[in-house]
Amino acid sequence: MRLALFFVALATSIAAEVGQESIEYWNRVGRKWLDAKLESDVGTILAAQQTPPKNVILFIGDGMGIATITAARIARNQNSGQADVNQPFFFETFPFSGLSKTASFDTHTTDSAASAVAMMCGRKVEQNTLGRLPGHGNKCEHGEKAKIRDGIADLAIDKGIDVGFATTAAITDATPAALYAKDVHRRMEFDSAPGMNTSNCEDIATQILSHPADKFKVLLGGGHAQFLPDSVGGNRTDNRSIEEEWAHLRPMQLAQSRVLLTGTEDFVHHTPEEDQQLLGIFAPLHFPYRVDENLRNSSSVPRLSEMAVKAVQVMEKQTDSRGYFLMIEGANIDKAQHKNRFHLATEELSEFDRAIEQVSNLVGDDTLILVTADHAHALTIPGYLNKSRSIFERDGNVSSIFFATGPGYGDGNRTLYTAEESMDPHFAQPASFFFNDARHGGEDVGIWAKGPFAWLFTGTLENTQIAYNIKYLMCLDDKEKSVCDLRKRMTEKQQNEDAERIMGATTVSPQSQSFHILNTSLPIRGTMIALLVITCVLALLVAALLVLLLRSTFRGTVKPSESSS
Ligand SMILES: *[C@@H]1O[C@H](CO)[C@@H](O)[C@H](O)[C@H]1NC(C)=O
Ligand SMILES: *[C@@H]1O[C@H](CO)[C@@H](O)[C@H](O)[C@H]1NC(C)=O
Ligand SMILES: *[C@@H]1O[C@H](CO)[C@@H](O)[C@H](O)[C@H]1NC(C)=O
Ligand SMILES: *[C@@H]1O[C@H](CO)[C@@H](O)[C@H](O)[C@H]1NC(C)=O
Ligand SMILES: *[C@@H]1O[C@H](CO)[C@@H](O)[C@H](O)[C@H]1NC(C)=O
Ligand SMILES: *[C@@H]1O[C@H](CO)[C@@H](O)[C@H](O)[C@H]1NC(C)=O
Ligand SMILES: *[C@@H]1O[C@H](CO)[C@@H](O)[C@H](O)[C@H]1NC(C)=O
Ligand SMILES: *[C@@H]1O[C@H](CO)[C@@H](O)[C@H](O)[C@H]1NC(C)=O
Ligand SMILES: [Zn+2]
């Protein structure tokens, strides 16, 4: 018994040593969660039946919390005259959904950098940091040992799986940069970023020239200013054009060409060809809001849906493809809410949804599609406005779309706005505390999934689990659990069973054979586990009895020191 207690204590102390700054901690969380899923009644059946996805597309609606989705859904349906204001967004019709916990390593409510790293690398990091292990401060003086190199992108590139992204933010913004940037503060977007100690730091823009981003197949978004020197209107003071440098990098082994698109014209005229690497930058910084594009009747940038479709087309064109991982971000859903401007957010969310629908229609059933948010906004929908009125209006003095913080606070008495004012596309909904930029919300966000193994993204999970599951399904991490091991074990099992059947010389049709295996494997497995457990319990009982017997036999010879330790 003492020995057992000792081992328990030892195990706990080892467990305590592995802190949350370590990937081992999050891998253990991931493994445990996944095992429970795979060993559930439904999990055992589905894992045996399905082929793992070849491709994974992760859609991130930045700041797309549950209240944001509800309010935007109502607004969109009211705008289009729908009698049923709960008509769902396309992604809300996915067969599986769950909840994801978003807290960062050091804050209850996360920023976009820490949460994107969690979803793309499978570990929690400090607020505002990218590709940097926790506990390394904000200086870039730790070299390789502070850098996170086990993210989805790094591992996928090593396995020959293609990686890409499209976003309506700058390519150097936190969410896309979480895929590739190492050891930087999220504001270190270019060489002379203000307020940053840049010594020894490689700014985010230049990091598209090094591993793993130099091997990405698709990079689409905004941010010319971070890539171009001040002499041509950019922000850089090192006189470098990172865009040109990217175009002149040696082509990758498989990629015959690097294609640089620097404007919407280029985008429209580009046709995806085999083995291209595509860098497209379409705005000085972030994309303009869809509402403003519509008001101006302009197409100064491609739509998110157009970029998403282009990204998939390029990916599907790759020869000898071993699959791809694609991240598509609706960034302006967040930026609009930072200003409490919910008409803008509604339109951005609708465009995000359009991108999901068009991509869904394009890909085959070998593709897993995930839709989630990196964090919520501190938004709520207080009662009890009559359904016949616009969700943007107020019920008495209560605004139906209400932020905790932000510029919508105004002069403090924003309760007095009229229904007409609230229908201005740039109207800012009220907030209870003034901030130039509204603060994010810390509650769980939704995750919606469809395609092979989509059921793995149900229940409540850590945002790190998203990366863990993707690594598992694409067999990215050789040191961790992977679906490839599961397939191997299942094939071996099947071969053994087939061999046994042949030995038994029974004649069964292949079809009924496979039904037979699936329909009976569960009870058989259950019985075997039960037998095993019973055997173990019996063995333990016998051992305990033996120990008790020996103890009572030799009671007189036990040294006193032993019982006082
Ligand atoms: C910037 O960081 C370097 C080392 O990383 C340090 O030597 C230097 O003093 C810092 N400069 C400022 C202004 O903090
Ligand atoms: C960088 O350039 C953009 C676009 O020209 C500008 O809006 C922004 O203020 C600049 N950023 C910084 C930090 O100087
Ligand atoms: C910047 O680079 C260009 C070409 O790369 C060169 O012609 C020019 O002299 C450089 N300007 C400065 C200020 O270094
Ligand atoms: C919007 O622009 C398109 C082409 O750019 C033009 O055909 C159309 O008439 C314009 N619509 C309005 C309302 O100005
Ligand atoms: C809601 O508005 C409709 C139409 O104006 C009205 O008939 C109905 O009585 C209202 N319901 C409530 C609960 O106020
Ligand atoms: C709304 O707020 C104003 C100013 O605080 C107050 O005078 C008024 O009675 C309130 N109206 C309602 C319906 O509560
Ligand atoms: C808000 O309150 C301030 C001071 O109480 C007042 O001067 C201002 O006119 C009010 N604003 C509106 C829109 O009523
Ligand atoms: C079990 O077998 C029946 C027919 O024998 C079949 O209809 C059913 O789909 C099988 N169940 C599974 C999970 O394959
Ligand atoms: Zn934000």
Short description:
The chain is 40% helix and 15% strand. It has 565 residues and is α/β, with parallel strands linked by helices. It has a domain at 23-63 and 90-374 and 450-483: Alkaline Phosphatase, subunit A (3-Layer(aba) Sandwich).
| CATH superfamily label of the domain at 23-63 and 90-374 and 450-483 | Alkaline Phosphatase, subunit A
Tell me the span between the first and last alpha carbons: 13 Å
Q: State which percent range the strand residues make up.
A: 5-15%
Task: Give a count of the beta strands, DSSP E runs of length 2 or more.
Answer: 19
Number of helices: 19
What is the annotated CATH architecture of the domain at 23-63 and 90-374 and 450-483? 3-Layer(aba) Sandwich
Biggest β-sheet: strands ordered side by side in the sheet? 7-8-6-4-9-1-10-18-2-19
Mean pLDDT: 90
* Overall geometric form: globular
Radius of gyration: 27 Å
Distinct bound molecules = 2-acetamido-2-deoxy-beta-D-glucopyranose, zinc ion
Name of the level-1 CATH class of the domain at 23-63 and 90-374 and 450-483: Alpha Beta
Structural class: alpha/beta
Helix content: 25-40%
CATH fold group of the domain at 23-63 and 90-374 and 450-483: Alkaline Phosphatase, subunit A
Biggest sheet descriptor = 10 strands, mixed
* Poorly predicted tracts of residues: 507-523, 556-565
Pfam families: Alk_phosphatase
Enzyme class: hydrolase
InterPro entries: Alkaline_phosphatase (IPR001952), Alkaline_phosphatase_core_sf (IPR017850)
Family: Belongs to the alkaline phosphatase family.
